[in-house]
Amino acid sequence: MTPRAGGLVVAVKAVPRSRRTRAVGVQDGALRVQIAAAPHKGQSNAALCGYLADAAGVRPSAVRVRRGSGGARKLIEVDGDPADVAPRLARRMGEDLGTLDRTDD
Question: What CATH number should be reported for the domain whose range is 2-97?
Answer without folding.
Answer: 3.30.1200.10
